[in-house]
Amino acid sequence: MISTIPGDLLGVLRSARHVVVLTGAGFSAESGVPTFREAQTGLWARFRPEELATPEAFARHPREVWDWYAWRRVLVAKARPHAGHRALVELARRVPTLTLITQNVDGLHQRSGCREVIELHGNLTRVRCAGTCGTSPLPESPDTLPPPCPCCGQPLRPDVVWFGESLPADALAQAWQAAGACDLLFSIGTSTLVYPAAALPEVALDAGASVVEVNPDETPLSRRATWCLRGKAASVLPLLLERTWAQEKGKPLQSDDD
Ligand code: OAD
After folding, report:
1. In whole angstroms, what is the distance from residue 88 CA to residue 21 CA?
2. Residue 153: helix, strand or coil by DSSP?
3. What domains can be seen in the chain, in order of their start residue?
4. Among the atoms of ligand 1, which is closest to the Cα of residue 37?
5. Do 149 and 97 form a contact (C-beta atoms < 8 A)?
6. If we measure between CA atoms, which residue out of 134, 109, 136 comes closest to residue 120?
7. What is the distance in A from the centroid of ligand 1 to the CA of 196?
8. Among 132-141, 182-191, 223-232, whose mean pLDDT is lowest?
């Protein structure tokens, strides 16, 4: 467990004008949402997520893919934001501009109180038409699964980005712009293996920003990151905030019990 934060990072964070935070599945791990590339449990242990998260898989096995996302929806509904989520809400209050970009589809950042979140891979609590009708309310007890789109009758699907699909253009453009304009980027809980999201820390570094990786394990980014904080999001982030701003009077930090 990490107990110290590099002193030069504290100074850079204190004076940062624009901070970007990129989060991945590891950020939600301590809320009880399994990551992608660590051991899967239960019913789905024998599947590789990539085999379920493609348009081809949905076309071949719509019921199985629907059920997998229904299972994840239940898991996410039971999950609660942790101290790391709350630390990001606090960080947004402390720095002039914070852009939060997530690859997660669980909505936990929003549930923790983050108002603006750039969702690169969609959100599994939403569904949309497999054709072109757009998003639709999730039917409560449909007769068939996947339920049909109320407009055109094609199946509804989770509103997430699958392998082989393009990311939402607006979200990607905003994320790219923020990464190129920030002075400090945090890459937290992501293996930085899946592009284009994995390129965002590189965009920031190439534009002259500093990059902090928060992850218990090494990733391909570790070599280039300015600082690597080896630990878990729920403990590293509150510690980072406490060390950075603890001495400020009149601005109490939120406690884990809030
Ligand atoms: P991965 O499952 O690839 O990586 C999770 C990372 O989080 C790993 O590097 C872990 O070491 C780290 N980690 C685990 N627990 C942590 C903790 N408590 N605190 C901090 N870090 C922790 O997840 P992503 O990088 O998010 O895409 O995967 C990227 C994309 O690949 C996903 O959005 C998904 C997936 O396939 C799509 O579905 C399109």
Report:
1. 9
2. coil
3. 1-33+81-121+167-258 (3.40.50.1220), 34-78+127-160 (3.30.1600.10)
4. 2
5. no
6. 109
7. 14
8. 132-141
CA–CA separation, 16 vs 82, rounded Å? 25
Among 103, 118, 218, 237, which is best to mutate for testing ligand 1, by the most ligand atoms less than 8 A from CB? 103
Distance CA 15, CA 55 (A): 45
User: 148 CA to middle of ligand 1, Å?
Assistant: 32
Q: CA torsion sign, 35 to 81 to 3 to 202?
A: positive
| Helix segments in the chain, DSSP class H | 7-15, 25-29, 49-52, 55-60, 62-78, 83-94, 108-112, 169-181, 200-206, 233-245
Q: Which two tokens stand for residue 196?
A: 């284009």
DSSP assigned state of 217: S
**CA 68, 74, 75, 81 torsion-angle sign:** positive
Tens-place pLDDT, residues 43-87: 455 677 667 889 999 999 999 999 989 989 999 999 999 999 999
Mean pLDDT of the chain: 91
Global pTM value? 0.93
What's the pLDDT score for residue 20? 98
